[in-house]
Model the fold of this input.
Amino acid sequence: MKHGSSRKLARSLGFWGALLLGLIIVWASFYNLSNHPDLWWDEAIFSKTAANLVQYGRYAFTEQSPDQLSDFDYRISAGPAIILPVALAYRLLGVGLVQGRLVASLYLVFTFLALFLASRRVFGPTAAFLAVLLALGATDAVHWGRSVLGDVPALGLFLCATWLIIRHLQDDRPWSLFLGGLFLGLAFDAKEFYGLAFLPPLVVLTRRDWGAWRSLARTWFIFLAGVALPLLSYLAFKAVGLGGLLPAAAHFWEQKALLRHEFFTPLTIGRVYCECFRYLLTNPLYLTGLLGSLWLWRQGGLTLSRGLWVGNFLLWSLVYFTAIFWYRFALPALFLATPLAAFVLCRALGRLTAGLAPWSLRWAAAGLLTGVCLWVFPVTGLEYLRTIAQDQGHPPSRLVDYLKKRIPQRTLIETPEYELVFLDNVHRIHLMPAFYIVESGEQGVKLLNPRRQPYNFNQVKADVLILGYFGKSIFAQIYSPAQVARYWRKVAQVDCYDIYVRRSSPLLRPPDTPVRLSAMPPLSVRQSKVQEAHGPDTLPHSFSH
Done:
């Protein structure tokens, strides 16, 4: 009876713990979307593409607002699995920052749920609960998942595919295998970073049915049919938009060549970033995941399901080691490490508490587990939770509000800060044309200009120039400080954004009169977020990947 009561209490504690964790994830996904995180380069590209699809019926990014568009622009690296749901949200709720982020937040919750379902199938409910807790607290998934990006949605689709494939491996469910392939294809449609994700399942399925050739052929057909369906749909979508299958295939190859810094492809074989090795091999969560993989292998515990999990973990480690070292690209490896790390912790704590009475064992295990997690693993996610709760004010929106008050409508603005073209529907925004990262490291960034001629931003004849994080870091080699100081006069600063007016522009009055950008009173000095200036000086800043 006492043992039964302890088990009932444990189940009750587990239920309430899971419910609390779920509520925290939902809160972290949806709270304060209008202020955190700041809208930035990639999110602006995908958000504006979805907006153009709704407003102009074109799958295109903007070159100059309102309607100078570039269809199937190579910078649109997220696929229809992201763009189309966001466009649907815009159609139903209106075009806006929060409306698009609602879709991203749904994907974020879905990703944590998929991690739990897949981990529970392979490692049990306790390890699955701990895996989700580690993914929330020890990674930056919450930060990236609240933005309209491809990384977290593709990760969620991939984890859902893994769960479905594992269901087939354990219960022999062909429909689960087909749906698993389908979700892998959708992960590719969300972010083509996942182009190699079909390899570990294919190896495991082949190993299982090796020698039973008819069964193997049937398994391959079911799985690859699921994978192919979203891919062929994406190709057909491009073919319709670009005028044929050959242009669609050529577009795919050219885009991969231009975005090769992100991907492990034949174009990047032999390329290694030391920063990637240092980031993962000094990450306690990743190292514990490696230890879990080794433990399973040494103990002979690599069943087909666990073999698939470890194979995925090793593949995504390799992908990150050969991709650019931006931290969000490590999320697949870190998420796959969480149940492996949880497995190690559960086994270790089980041995430490083996001699305790049931009631004491539960509390001792919980206390030890909490202490180990807080001491060993990074608390990146917890820091983001605090930021989400406290962040007030959205710098890009503050800038747009400032421009609407101070700069006449329809004024042409030149900028490399793509977020402006999504938020500002009053002025004409001319965006810096596409430059692509060839190499990126701690020593600097090398850019590829796909045009034969260098870009001279002064030839645009804009009246206003705005430089933010990107314009003053990566793209300072395009918007050189010397050129800016020669032809432009800095008149204001809003957060990180420097606002310049062309020295020959009629917006500037003679030097002996106050600077006025509109019929409103002269620009005022704002103590907290907005500063006036009359020189090319900029604030110190950091650039986060």
